[in-house]
Amino acid sequence: MTNSIPTTGEGPGGAEADALAARAEAINKIYGSGDAEVVALDDVTVGLGRGRFTAIMGPSGSGKSTLMHCMAGLDTVDSGRVFIGAVELTRLDDRRLTRLRRDKVGFVFQTFNLVPTLTALENITLPTDIAGRRPDRDWLDTVIDAVGLRDRLRHRPGELSGGQQQRVACARALAGRPDVVFADEPTGNLDSRSGGEVLSFLRDSVRRMGQTVVMVTHDPVAAGHSDEVIFLSDGRIVDRMPGPTAEKVLERMKGFELAGGGAAR
Ligand SMILES: Nc1ncnc2c1ncn2[C@@H]1O[C@H](COP(=O)(O)OP(=O)(O)OP(=O)(O)O)[C@@H](O)[C@H]1O
């Protein structure tokens, strides 16, 4: 197939590639130059386990969004390599990168980013429609039932609550059965009840539907739903916490504040 996305012989292979949905290898990202230079990512190496729910936390400005954007192929790195599965993102031209994002990656944003003129169902199937692919009906049904939106499918976003809109966005992210879903503060605009529903759904999509979810969050309660928390500080990974609870995460975040690692918001 001439159009296929190339893999690299030097990247993680075999069992390692299978176990990791995404991986960054010694990535650096610098914004600005001279006095205005900011090292947003400083030699970050991290693997995100397949079939796992990973949370990324850290003080404001620690590089969480930058890491997520670089790993999702939404932003470029200055050096180092990024893989989605066995495919090296950092070797792809724009056209192939766009296709990889479309076919292999799902996104959930803090502000939902739904198309207001389309119904919930049309929003959910939009990425597969644009890709010219037929959605897998059984999978779509599974996703729609899992987010609990079957009776809202004909509603437009303006007729849905914030929590319902974010559940539509989650269903949209999962509809194409991506290799990995990146969620950037998915509960940041929601009250705690709606946020809890979205987090339960994201967790269930991992546990019951075998998906892989990576979430940036400031909220220890949200991070407590994950399988593992990765802590960033000053553009570096400083800790990982498997089996987190909200209490343990809060304690760890307080440690950053005491160490002068910036405001934890
Ligand atoms: N486009 C940009 N131009 C210049 N500097 C940037 C840009 N994007 C991010 N930065 C800087 O890079 C550093 C990391 O930013 P990033 O947004 O990744 O942090 P974050 O941990 O997600 O922060 P927050 O929790 O406040 O959203 C910060 O110092 C930020 O000011």
Helix content: 25-40%
Q: Strand share of the residues?
A: 15-25%
Strand order of the largest sheet: 6-7-8-3-9-10
CATH architecture type = 3-Layer(aba) Sandwich
CATH superfamily descriptor: P-loop containing nucleotide triphosphate hydrolases
The number of helical elements comes to: 9
Which segments are poorly predicted (pLDDT under 50) over 5 or more consecutive residues?
A: 1-11
Could you tell me the CATH topology label. Answer: Rossmann fold
Q: How many individual domains?
A: 1
Mean pLDDT: 90
What attributes characterize this protein structure?
Rossmann fold, four-stranded antiparallel β-sheet, AAA+_ATPase, ATP binding, 24% strand, disordered N terminus, 265 residues, binds adenosine-5'-triphosphate, globular, alpha/beta, ABC transporter ATP-binding protein, ABC_transporter-like_ATP-bd, six-stranded mixed β-sheet
